[in-house]
Amino acid sequence: MRPEDVVNLDLYPILDQASPERAELVKRLKTELDEKQYVSLPDFIRPEARERAVADAKAALPRAHHNSSQRNCYLQRKGDETLPSDHPRNLMLEASTRMLAYDQVPDDCPVKTLYHWEPVRQMVAEIVGEEKLYDNEDPCQPVNLLCYQTGDRSAWHFDSVNAFTMTLMLQASEAGGDFEMVPNTRSDDDQNYDYVRSVLKGECPDDAVSVARSAGALCIFRGCNSLHRVSPVEGDSMRVMGVFVYEREPGIVGDPEVNATVYGRELSAG
Ligand SMILES: O=C(O)CCC(=O)C(=O)O
Ligand SMILES: [Fe+2]
């Protein structure tokens, strides 16, 4: 499929850099991201492209890496014995997801077509306030298909490395699978452990916003300082999410240890 047939250009006229419609759209989305820490772009891809990507995910699913683990919200599997047992670093939460790495997704899958298309990359750059973004060049990380079957979930966490995260809902679950976020749970210079603990313990449910995600919706969020999770998926429909990583510099590849954990890749000896 051509990129023009993947992206819904009727709703998102991103092709003409000079058009006032595009400028207006990007400005609105940037303001929303700055205010809420997330912004959702409904019907960003066309139904045929979405269906193709779901079919690709289903075909590759037997090779997916099943991540099933206890971890804290900093994505660590080990706590810190020097801290109290109810310190956020010692609160271990259960997560279970099925991960398809970039090199397990067919090259003509619409999620790759979209990711590598300059008009999308440039639109995202402007929304997140970067002059320019680059594709990640790791064999595993640039584009993933993250699948959630019945009972799968992602536990409260902060995203570690990236200033923003971009996801695309390809297929929603029948029930559950809600993306929830507590905006600005911490800041760059304050870990805010007491508040983080309250959220992890379920003591402030009203602070979490549930981000509506219909199939086809693109979401850009700042997950570094805002705790977020995906509630357990219910029903037979697999929740399929495209996850995209753009970089501020060219030539970025991932950390082999991260790839071992997230994608189940062997760490080469030495
Ligand atoms: O599956 C989702 O909606 C969220 C995934 C997530 O937390 C992430 O990619 O950082
Ligand atoms: Fe995340």
From TrEMBL:
Q: Is Metal-binding set as a keyword in this record?
A: yes
Question: Which residue ranges does the record assign to the Fe2OG dioxygenase domain?
Answer: 136-248
Q: Which Pfam families match?
A: HalD
Give yes or no: UniProt keyword Iron: yes
The UniProt keyword set, sorted, is: Iron, Metal-binding, Oxidoreductase
Q: Where is this region: Disordered?
A: 61-88
Annotated Basic and acidic residues bias: 77-88
- InterPro entries, per the entry: BesD/HalB-like, Oxoglu/Fe-dep_dioxygenase_dom
Give the molecular function GO annotations.
metal ion binding; oxidoreductase activity
Its family remark reads: Belongs to the iron/ascorbate-dependent oxidoreductase family.
Question: What's this protein's name?
Answer: Fe2OG dioxygenase domain-containing protein
Native organism: Roseovarius indicus
